[in-house]
Amino acid sequence: MLLVLGGFRANAQPCLIQITNNAISIQPALCSGTVATLQGSTPLGGNGSYTYQWQKSVGNCNAANFQPIPNATSKDYPVPAGTDPNDCFRRVVTSGTCTHTSNTTKVLLVDRTTPSGPATMTTPSSCATASGSISVTSPVPGANISYTVTGTNYNNTNSTGIFSSLAPGIYNVTVKYPSGCLSPVTFQTVAASQTVSGTITPSSASICQGDTKLVLHKQELIL
């Protein structure tokens, strides 16, 4: 394309390699004190160097209403805690003379509320020996994720989320995410099993024709 600028002719550079892979998605708040994040994919195409500008449309996703968000020029965008759930977001990527606009999304209240602690399941422990267990069912194990049952002290950790040989009691289950932040605490009780053992006397008896009942006498009962 040939442009005339102030009497001089200049060639406007076309976008030779279109930008692709520009998509955004929501990462809900995971850790105590954190906010939801709009995560943008790593673009492809263009000249290989990219700049970003996040935009917001107040109250709807009408394309004509989007305006740049001041200072929101990173690959990802932390969503302010007080954001209206009707507001809509998108990301514009620029590379040389090429630009590309992502999909749009709203950040719902469920994604911005206080994050929940890990989900767990337990098995009880006997009173005589520490035989209870806690298994974290969500989040599932992943790269650089670790778990503990000691809360924010964060010792006795593992990467499986399965803790065995636990005595009856209350445990503080937390997750450490790859960023290093900790989830809220889930307070999980390992109950004492209610096993009852005992013997009866006599251990066997014969019932004769005409008998109406058999009385068993308790000899021992252990709780």
Overview of the molecule:
This protein is mainly beta and 223 residues long. The protein has 2 domains: 17-112, Sandwich (Immunoglobulin-like), CATH 2.60.40; 119-190, Immunoglobulin-like, CATH 2.60.40. 2% of the residues lie in helices and 39% in strands. Strands 5, 6, 8, 9 and 10 form a 5-stranded antiparallel β-sheet that branches.
Short description:
This protein is mostly beta strands and 223 residues long. The protein contains 1 helix and 19 strands. The chain has 2 domains: 17-112, Immunoglobulin-like, CATH 2.60.40; 119-190, Immunoglobulin-like.
Characteristics:
223 residues; mainly beta; Immunoglobulin-like; five-stranded antiparallel β-sheet; four-stranded antiparallel β-sheet; 19 strands; disordered N terminus; disordered C terminus
CATH superfamily of the largest domain: Immunoglobulins
What CATH calls the topology of the largest domain is: Immunoglobulin-like
Percent of residues in beta strands? 35-45%
What is the correct CATH architecture of the largest domain? Sandwich
**Number of beta strands:** 19
Q: Number of domains in the coordinates?
A: 2
Rounded radius of gyration (Å): 31 Å
Q: Mind describing the biggest β-sheet?
A: 5 strands, antiparallel
The top-level CATH class of the largest domain is Mainly Beta
Q: Class by helix and strand content?
A: mainly beta
Percent of residues in helices comes to under 10%
**What is the tally of helical segments?**
1
**What series of H and E elements makes up the topology?**
EEEEEEEEEEHEEEEEEEEE
Termini gap? 91 Å
Mean pLDDT across every amino acid position = 83
